[in-house]
Amino acid sequence: MKTLKELQEIRDREKGGLDERCEGATVTEGAPRAHVLVCGGTGCTSGNSKIIYDNFKTLLAEKNVTDINVIMTGCFGLCSKGPIVVVYPDGSFYTHVKPEDVAEIVDAHLIGGAPVERLLHAEKDADGQMKSINDTDFYKSQRRVVLRNCGVIDPENIDEYLARDGYKAYEKAVSTMTQQQVIDEIKKSGLRGRGGAGFPTGMKWQFTHDAPGTDKYVACNADEGDPGAFMDRSLLEGDPHAVIEAMMIAGYAVGAERGVIYVRAEYPIAVHRLEVAIKQAHEYGILGDNALGLGHKFELELRLGAGAFVCGEETALLNSSEGKRGEPRQRPPFPAVKGLFGKPTLINNVETYGNITQIILNGADWFASVGTEKSKGTKVFALGGKLENVGLVEIPMGTTLRTIVEDIGGGCPHGKKFKAAQTGGPSGGCIPASLIDTPIDYDSLMAIGSMMGSGGLIVMDEDNCMVDIAKFFLEFTVDESCGKCTPCRIGNKRLLEMLDKVTKGEATLEDLDKMEELCYYIKENSLCGLGQTAPNPVLSTLRYFRDEYEAHCNGKCPAGVCKALVSYKVDPEKCIGCTICARNCPVGAISGSVKQTHSIDPKKCIKCGVCASKCPKGAISK
Amino acid sequence: MTEEKDKQFGEVLESLKDVPGPVMMAMQKAQEIYGYLPIEVQLRIADYFGVPLATVYGIATFYSQFRLEQPGQIKIAVCLGTACYVKGSGGVIEKFGRMLGVEPGHTTPDGRFTLEATRCIGCCGLAPVLTVNGEVYGKVTEDSVDEIMAKYNNA
Ligand SMILES: Cc1cc2nc3c(=O)[nH]c(=O)nc-3n(C[C@H](O)[C@H](O)[C@H](O)COP(=O)(O)O)c2cc1C
Ligand code: FES
């Protein structure tokens, strides 16, 4: 149990060390002379960043270096170049670091003072000067509000969070604002839910506040089911206290004393960091019967998912948190009136909560100064797919897709052509290359038939078949449909069968029209958001890539992806009869003797493409 | 062995006595302890919390993470999340299927390998991604399937 004064002392003590973690900072007396930040996000951890961290610790200890601080942080964002190590105050940004590189960094850089050039993320400006990391293409268009502590603090050390004004927003809210003032501030900021639907957050707080009853809950949706999205995970891994503090503020505002965070079971590191954070907050008396000694109670518990996409839907999440099958409930009543265990419940997404402390501390006007008229603030995206720089980015609302794909993402690798980007995951739609200048905000995306979604942004290039992608998403939703309502359970299944016909080249142009009709039927009649949005990927690809669908009806897959429509051929001009293809074919479909042109038996061929990838002369093609 | 597990699980049940909505939590713990959910364990959970077995079984079959059969010694899980899929993880899992002679979701008859398709595990930066007994392999290609299989076949 710590008093407010003791918490302030911790902030003051830690502040010097934290201020050094930016490029070119001056080192304060008594603080470490350098900070080594090793990324401890899921991506880098699977690239052995824990061993890298340990190696730094042991090597520095062996060499009796005591004035250098080594910590593990949350995600830096540039996941495809991981594992990442950053040294401050120099601002050296090391990429693709291997455990065996640590000795060199310690000797040459930390002790010798000369950064290891070969590992640096080097980008030069027009004059050939090395750019500072904040000026590189990947970072310069970004603006970090939600991710402000990710890649800066040690998420397992509450003192570092405190030093970044941690728990000051709660203090401010409870001691200087009424419940209604807090709600009004959130309303005025224009913050909209980041979980997908974009519902105004302040209004939701108001509904829950106004609901009759005393036993209320505050819930956090950390189910993040959109495959290929990892914004919420990164925030929980990099800055768990920010979410906890925001839930406490929400608890105060709506009058709830209990909070529940529902996390996907696939996120073990996030779960662990939350557990650590909750424990530390308890020890400091921040969570508990008398939170921060300010007279309000707040308790927080975790509930783990078990692998069901529909549980991200708020009413299904409630059922699952109660330990039941995660089937959605009929709305109304809305969770704000009748939620967890039948009590009024506020449900917000992780990233939505991630904005709260900053709005309270800096004011609604500050927050609303970023973004567009109807979409305020920033949005975190998980960039994935065919991009040079894959990772986590936070951009002001209204940034164009072009900036994201070309500048931040660095374009498609191998000089391939950008074809489309998918936002909103299985509930969203694609944005074709022709609309690359669309600003990314709730309303612009809606207008072109996609949606903001939770923040997954997957880029596809000319090698991806849009019909195949639509089928991929629909397979996902069919698999994840809970089966409770017929339009979703059976309608989507039929739709998938029709799509399958298209990918096999067996569909007619009339079938395409029928598909479209079925899509609208499913959208209008399903019980929950899963069914209501499931046909979106089909509709949007039909809208922008109808020519690809038509090509399939004519027996061709332009991208060469749909197996039924491709066949492999040996080019007799190029084949040298080396027999490599025949030896590698898993089904013995290739015949031919040494130095003779080989041939593929189309009846046996399973179109796995092994032969084409093994041929030293590139003689086999689709 | 099982006796010890049964005892351990008994303690878990005890600790969940006063928790609201405990059934799913108990099942998650049970799977941690036993590796899957044998029917006897499901019965025990149903009895302990006074719910029908159908409720427990209904939950077990609703969520993809619950297993009703003993998994193989080596669990190969290929990510079929969007980021991995657009980078070709579909071909990778197909190749494992061919080499092991099983469809995703199944275990080889000798009980050695289980092949699974998973949802996004959050390593999309390394796509396509797979895990073998929890160890992550990133940026895999169909060629690396041979290397990975060779490693575990010789182990
Ligand atoms: C099928 C489906 C899946 C969803 N998955 C998520 C999810 O993974 N994470 C999330 O925060 N919201 C998800 N939502 C949205 C939630 O229902 C809800 O709108 C959100 O948690 C509200 O929080 P917000 O207002 O802060 O966005 C999903 C909705 C549907 C229909
Ligand atoms: S899509 Fe495979 S790890 Fe995210």
Topology:
The complex is a heterodimer of chains A (622) and B (155).
Chain A: H1 4-19, E1 34-39, H2 42-46, H3 49-62, E2 68-73, E3 85-88, E4 92-94, H4 102-111, H5 137-140, H6 158-163, H7 168-176, H8 179-189, H9 201-210, E5 217-222, H10 231-238, H11 240-254, E6 258-263, H12 268-283, E7 299-304, H13 314-321, E8 345-349, H14 350-362, H15 364-368, E9 378-385, E10 391-396, H16 401-408, E11 418-423, E12 429-432, H17 442-447, E13 456-461, H18 466-480, H19 486-503, H20 509-525, H21 529-533, H22 536-544, H23 546-553, E14 569-570, H24 580-584, E15 590-591, E16 599-600, H25 610-614, E17 620-621
Parallel strand pairs in A: 1-2, 5-6, 5-8, 6-7, 9-13
Antiparallel strand pairs in A: 1-3, 3-4, 9-10, 11-12, 11-13, 14-17, 15-16
Helix pairs in contact in A: 7-11, 7-14, 8-9, 8-11, 10-11, 10-12, 11-14, 18-19, 18-22, 19-20
Chain B: H1 2-15, H2 23-34, H3 39-49, H4 53-62, E1 74-79, H5 82-86, H6 89-100, E2 106-107, E3 113-118, E4 130-132, E5 135-137, H7 142-154
Parallel strand pairs in B: 1-3
Antiparallel strand pairs in B: 1-4, 2-3, 4-5
Helix pairs in contact in B: 1-2, 2-3, 3-4
The complex binds flavin mononucleotide and FE2/S2 (inorganic) cluster.
The site of flavin mononucleotide has 22 residues of chain A, from strand 8 and helix 21.
